Amino acid sequence: MRFVYRFFFLALISILFFECQREVSYIGTADPGQTLLPNPISANLQGNVLDENGQPAANVVIKVGSEMAATDTKGYFRINNAPLDKNASLVTAEKTGYFTAYRTFGATSGTNQVVIKLTKKNLGGTINGVAGGDVSLNNGTKISLPANGIVKASDNSNYTGAINVYAAYIDPTSADILDKVPGSFMANNKDGKRVLLSSYGMMAVELESSAGEKLQIKPGNTATLTSPIPSLAQSSAPATISLWYVDESTGLWKEEGTATKQGNNYIGTVKHFTYWNCDIQVQTVMLTATFKTANGQPLVNASIVIKPTTGNYYGTAHGYTDSLGQMNGPVPANMNLVLQVMDGCGGSIYSQNIGPYAENMNLGTISIPSTVAAIVTVKGKLTNCTNGNVTKGYAVVSIDNWVHYAKADANGNFSTNFSLCSTNGKSAQVLGVDETTLQQGNVSTVAVVTPITDAGTIAACGTVSTQFLNYTIDNTSYTVLDSDSLTAFTSGQATQLSTYINGMQIGSGGIGIWFKFDHTAPAAGTYGVYSLGFNTQNSVANLIQPFNVVITNFPQSAGQFYQGSFTGQYKDGSNVTHNITCSFKVRRTF
């Protein structure tokens, strides 16, 4: 399970990272942190990305190390064998019109789950670069830029034109803070020690020229930020508080400077722009646990909340169990806590008092009673092309926007569970895959019932399940296989659709590519490619037209495959012409 961090507070809000995010229990004056070194592992990663309205966000580019993926129409993505870290894994999510989102979590050995909510990138105002000036948001957030104090980020050259200031205030007491918080509440303080933060307000700021060039504060200059203190936190807000910014290379907050309380605001100066946060650092211990259902099955991707039971500390820590039911991460030290398992609507379906802990703790296995109606088990049996049991395979099970990969046992039986808010009108889509014969079947749909939804016999036969994306640049060939998280989907409005096919990098020597093309109907044919990019170079090629893709098979439903090829030329950033050919077969995701 990985930690996705969420945070609320009334008097003093402490949030921690509990393979999700935990609430802070102790705020000390001495150094509360510890030095944590990288602890890399390779594990599967999946997640869901939401837009500012909480709806699935498609076409979001996901990056984990050198690996990349894109969300489908459900906002879902998956990367197999992702380069993760037990102490702090970083996932970034990028979509035009939004600030880059970060999620930092402690990875586990199962398939890790994250949820990310994007922050809309709205124009707060425009400032003259020579004169400087202020931009204010409706809630009182203010960004004050110095006169003649802005440079182009690309080369540090002076910029004196119009400055577009994009800004958003992020309220740490909001109900969606867990999914929206940049990175998490994990941080490195000024001494390089790992701590957790209790926030009193944060904001995102980006500067751009009228031509869209990235801008920054000129070295030797500072800008002033005015950050409103949420009403629930004003009574406990200290007179002086540390400022923290997101280190975009790690997703961790880093301590830099202080802010002073003036009225109901914090005011401080900064030397560069990214996400900024007013926080108190807190002492924690590491907590691990495994959650299972009453029949001993791992509780998959369940929402877990931990918060103090009494006292003047208010807030929640939240995250998701992995495919093995595991969680691990920091929680408040020396405080009585309550651990809760939540349903899909944020209601508690199970709670248990825990703590206080003065040192790291393993809670062992926590079993959720069978009387919890919100937990729905979906099970079935996979059969192969000879009607025998699949001995090595898996089922891809989807309910709403949530997708689980359920491994089949030696007899073909599979089972997974979902923590739902309601089952009324819900259906589960199930796709069976036989890894021995490299076959898959058609998607089956079954009505969701509690406590067990039996999908019956699912045929994993009928279509070769192997996916690939093979391409050659000049005379160098690359192969991207199924295990490297190939994704493909169609999105758009009316008849103007855009298809994104994404090949992931293989190891350290491969180059993953993606391309987009328009089509007027979901059918086989020849279509013009309008965008081609390279994952490891994080760049978009300048296509030499005509540049067409031939689609020999266009999937009409989830589980079927895009198949086709293209041949063309492009110019790189140095204006050098390259030849590229590509053939592919990629499954359409749910």
What does this protein look like?
The chain is mainly beta and 590 residues long. Helix content is 1%, strand content 52%. Among the domains are: 160 residues, Sandwich (Chondroitinase Ac, Chain A, domain 3), CATH 2.60.220; 90 residues, Immunoglobulin-like; 120 residues, no CATH class. The chain is built from 1 helix and 47 strands. The strands form 8 sheets. Strands 37, 38, 39, 40, 41, 42, 43, 44, 45, 46 and 47 form an 11-stranded antiparallel sheet that branches. Strands 29, 30, 32, 33, 34 and 36 form a 6-stranded antiparallel sheet that branches. A 5-stranded mixed β-barrel has the order 13-14-20-17-18. A hairpin with an 8-residue loop joins strand 22 and strand 23.
The mean pLDDT is: 84
Broad structural category: mainly beta
Terminal residue distance: 23 Å
The amount of helix comes to under 10%
Query: What is the CATH architecture descriptor of the domain at 123-282?
Result: Sandwich
Number of strands: 47
Specify the overall morphology.
globular
Short précis:
With 590 residues, this protein is mainly beta. Helices cover 1% and strands 52% of the residues. The strands form eight sheets. Strands 37, 38, 39, 40, 41, 42, 43, 44, 45, 46 and 47 form an eleven-stranded antiparallel sheet that branches. Strands 29, 30, 32, 33, 34 and 36 form a six-stranded antiparallel sheet that branches. Strands 13-14-20-17-18 form a five-stranded mixed beta barrel.
